[in-house]
Amino acid sequence: MSEPHHHDHTEPPSDLVLRVKALESLLVEKGLVDPAAIDLLIDSYESKIGPRNGARVVARTWSDPTFKKWLLQDATSAIASLGYTGRQGEHMKVVENTSKVHNLVVCTLCSCYPWPVLGLPPVWYKSPPYRARAIADPRGVLKEFGTEVNEDVEIRVWDSTSEVRYLVLSERPAGTDGWTEERLATLVTRNSMIGVERAKSAQRD
Asked: Which of 122, 159, 167, 204 has the greatest CB tally within 10 Å of its CB?
Protein backbone atom coordinates (compact mmCIF):
# COMPACT_ATOMS: atom_id res chain seq x y z
CA MET A 1 0.00 0.00 0.00
CA SER A 2 1.76 3.04 -1.31
CA GLU A 3 1.13 6.40 0.27
CA PRO A 4 0.27 9.44 -1.91
CA HIS A 5 3.50 10.97 -3.10
CA HIS A 6 3.40 14.78 -2.89
CA HIS A 7 7.07 15.36 -2.82
CA ASP A 8 10.01 17.70 -2.41
CA HIS A 9 13.33 16.11 -3.24
CA THR A 10 15.58 15.74 -0.25
CA GLU A 11 18.74 14.77 -2.11
CA PRO A 12 21.30 17.59 -2.04
CA PRO A 13 21.30 19.70 -5.22
CA SER A 14 23.99 18.66 -7.68
CA ASP A 15 25.82 22.00 -7.37
CA LEU A 16 26.07 21.51 -3.61
CA VAL A 17 27.48 18.02 -4.11
CA LEU A 18 30.09 19.44 -6.49
CA ARG A 19 31.03 22.15 -4.00
CA VAL A 20 31.49 19.61 -1.22
CA LYS A 21 33.62 17.37 -3.45
CA ALA A 22 35.75 20.35 -4.53
CA LEU A 23 36.26 21.44 -0.92
CA GLU A 24 37.12 17.90 0.12
CA SER A 25 39.68 17.61 -2.70
CA LEU A 26 41.24 20.95 -1.78
CA LEU A 27 41.55 20.05 1.90
CA VAL A 28 43.11 16.70 1.05
CA GLU A 29 45.50 18.31 -1.48
CA LYS A 30 46.64 20.87 1.12
CA GLY A 31 47.23 18.09 3.62
CA LEU A 32 44.62 19.46 6.01
CA VAL A 33 42.38 16.41 5.93
CA ASP A 34 43.23 12.72 5.74
CA PRO A 35 41.02 10.92 3.17
CA ALA A 36 40.87 7.94 5.52
CA ALA A 37 39.45 10.18 8.25
CA ILE A 38 36.70 11.36 5.90
CA ASP A 39 35.85 7.77 4.98
CA LEU A 40 35.75 6.83 8.66
CA LEU A 41 33.44 9.75 9.46
CA ILE A 42 31.06 8.84 6.63
CA ASP A 43 31.07 5.18 7.71
CA SER A 44 30.27 6.20 11.28
CA TYR A 45 27.19 8.14 10.21
CA GLU A 46 26.14 5.53 7.68
CA SER A 47 26.43 2.42 9.81
CA LYS A 48 26.91 3.39 13.45
CA ILE A 49 25.63 6.71 14.80
CA GLY A 50 22.27 6.94 13.03
CA PRO A 51 21.36 3.24 13.02
CA ARG A 52 22.40 2.97 16.66
CA ASN A 53 19.82 5.62 17.53
CA GLY A 54 17.09 3.77 15.67
CA ALA A 55 18.14 0.51 17.28
CA ARG A 56 17.63 2.05 20.71
CA VAL A 57 14.15 3.18 19.70
CA VAL A 58 13.22 -0.35 18.59
CA ALA A 59 14.79 -1.93 21.67
CA ARG A 60 12.78 0.38 23.91
CA THR A 61 9.53 -0.78 22.29
CA TRP A 62 10.49 -4.42 22.86
CA SER A 63 10.92 -3.83 26.59
CA ASP A 64 8.39 -1.07 27.28
CA PRO A 65 4.78 -1.65 26.08
CA THR A 66 3.77 1.90 27.03
CA PHE A 67 6.51 3.40 24.87
CA LYS A 68 5.59 1.05 22.02
CA LYS A 69 1.98 2.24 22.09
CA TRP A 70 3.14 5.86 22.05
CA LEU A 71 5.59 5.18 19.21
CA LEU A 72 2.92 3.60 17.02
CA GLN A 73 0.53 6.49 17.70
CA ASP A 74 2.95 9.44 17.52
CA ALA A 75 6.37 8.31 16.37
CA THR A 76 7.87 11.79 16.00
CA SER A 77 7.18 12.71 19.62
CA ALA A 78 8.17 9.32 21.03
CA ILE A 79 11.47 9.34 19.15
CA ALA A 80 12.15 12.94 20.18
CA SER A 81 11.66 11.95 23.82
CA LEU A 82 14.83 9.86 23.48
CA GLY A 83 16.73 12.85 22.13
CA TYR A 84 16.74 11.89 18.46
CA THR A 85 15.60 14.91 16.48
CA GLY A 86 16.79 17.01 13.61
CA ARG A 87 16.37 17.69 9.93
CA GLN A 88 14.63 14.82 8.13
CA GLY A 89 13.66 13.34 11.45
CA GLU A 90 10.31 15.10 11.36
CA HIS A 91 7.00 13.49 10.38
CA MET A 92 7.97 9.99 11.46
CA LYS A 93 5.66 7.00 11.28
CA VAL A 94 6.51 3.54 12.63
CA VAL A 95 4.99 0.44 11.03
CA GLU A 96 5.08 -2.86 12.90
CA ASN A 97 6.02 -6.27 11.50
CA THR A 98 3.93 -9.17 12.80
CA SER A 99 3.51 -12.84 11.99
CA LYS A 100 0.96 -11.81 9.34
CA VAL A 101 2.43 -8.56 7.97
CA HIS A 102 5.90 -7.60 6.74
CA ASN A 103 6.62 -3.93 6.01
CA LEU A 104 9.09 -2.55 3.49
CA VAL A 105 10.11 1.09 3.01
CA VAL A 106 11.02 2.76 -0.27
CA CYS A 107 11.14 6.28 -1.66
CA THR A 108 10.25 6.12 -5.34
CA LEU A 109 10.97 9.72 -6.33
CA CYS A 110 13.97 10.65 -4.20
CA SER A 111 15.78 9.49 -1.08
CA CYS A 112 13.55 10.68 1.78
CA TYR A 113 15.20 9.07 4.75
CA PRO A 114 15.13 9.65 8.53
CA TRP A 115 18.79 10.47 9.11
CA PRO A 116 18.55 11.00 12.90
CA VAL A 117 17.55 7.36 13.45
CA LEU A 118 19.02 5.59 10.40
CA GLY A 119 22.16 7.54 9.54
CA LEU A 120 23.05 8.10 5.88
CA PRO A 121 20.94 6.26 3.29
CA PRO A 122 22.69 3.25 1.76
CA VAL A 123 23.56 3.49 -1.94
CA TRP A 124 21.13 0.72 -2.89
CA TYR A 125 18.22 2.53 -1.20
CA LYS A 126 18.67 5.48 -3.57
CA SER A 127 19.18 3.34 -6.67
CA PRO A 128 16.46 3.29 -9.39
CA PRO A 129 16.36 -0.55 -9.50
CA TYR A 130 15.50 -0.78 -5.77
CA ARG A 131 12.94 2.01 -6.00
CA ALA A 132 11.18 0.38 -8.93
CA ARG A 133 11.36 -3.25 -7.84
CA ALA A 134 10.40 -2.64 -4.23
CA ILE A 135 7.04 -1.50 -5.55
CA ALA A 136 6.67 -4.01 -8.40
CA ASP A 137 8.20 -7.12 -6.80
CA PRO A 138 8.73 -6.61 -3.06
CA ARG A 139 8.87 -10.33 -2.34
CA GLY A 140 11.65 -10.74 -4.90
CA VAL A 141 13.60 -7.81 -3.43
CA LEU A 142 13.33 -9.29 0.06
CA LYS A 143 14.58 -12.63 -1.22
CA GLU A 144 17.67 -10.93 -2.68
CA PHE A 145 18.45 -9.64 0.82
CA GLY A 146 18.08 -13.18 2.15
CA THR A 147 14.67 -12.51 3.68
CA GLU A 148 12.18 -15.27 2.95
CA VAL A 149 8.57 -14.28 3.61
CA ASN A 150 5.84 -16.93 3.55
CA GLU A 151 3.15 -16.58 0.91
CA ASP A 152 0.48 -16.14 3.58
CA VAL A 153 2.26 -13.06 4.97
CA GLU A 154 1.06 -9.74 3.55
CA ILE A 155 3.82 -7.43 2.36
CA ARG A 156 3.06 -3.73 2.75
CA VAL A 157 5.26 -1.24 0.88
CA TRP A 158 5.42 2.25 2.33
CA ASP A 159 6.52 5.12 0.11
CA SER A 160 8.38 7.75 2.13
CA THR A 161 7.92 11.40 1.26
CA SER A 162 9.03 14.74 2.66
CA GLU A 163 5.74 14.73 4.60
CA VAL A 164 6.15 11.29 6.21
CA ARG A 165 9.15 9.06 6.77
CA TYR A 166 8.84 5.46 7.85
CA LEU A 167 10.73 3.18 10.23
CA VAL A 168 9.97 -0.54 10.44
CA LEU A 169 9.54 -2.09 13.88
CA SER A 170 10.74 -5.68 13.61
CA GLU A 171 9.30 -8.51 15.64
CA ARG A 172 11.28 -9.14 18.81
CA PRO A 173 13.55 -12.15 18.25
CA ALA A 174 12.80 -15.29 20.25
CA GLY A 175 15.03 -16.17 23.17
CA THR A 176 15.56 -12.58 24.35
CA ASP A 177 13.46 -12.60 27.52
CA GLY A 178 15.24 -10.75 30.29
CA TRP A 179 17.62 -8.96 27.95
CA THR A 180 18.52 -5.34 28.68
CA GLU A 181 17.61 -2.64 26.18
CA GLU A 182 21.29 -2.20 25.39
CA ARG A 183 21.65 -5.85 24.49
CA LEU A 184 18.39 -5.91 22.53
CA ALA A 185 19.62 -2.96 20.48
CA THR A 186 22.52 -5.07 19.17
CA LEU A 187 19.98 -7.18 17.28
CA VAL A 188 18.53 -4.21 15.38
CA THR A 189 20.14 -3.26 12.07
CA ARG A 190 19.63 -0.43 9.64
CA ASN A 191 18.30 -2.93 7.08
CA SER A 192 15.77 -4.31 9.55
CA MET A 193 14.47 -0.76 10.12
CA ILE A 194 14.04 -0.33 6.35
CA GLY A 195 12.39 -3.75 6.24
CA VAL A 196 14.62 -5.57 3.78
CA GLU A 197 15.78 -7.84 6.60
CA ARG A 198 14.54 -9.02 9.98
CA ALA A 199 16.27 -8.23 13.25
CA LYS A 200 19.18 -10.55 14.00
CA SER A 201 18.37 -13.70 15.89
CA ALA A 202 19.50 -14.13 19.47
CA GLN A 203 21.67 -17.05 18.40
CA ARG A 204 23.71 -14.77 16.15
CA ASP A 205 24.20 -12.09 18.77
From this structure: 167
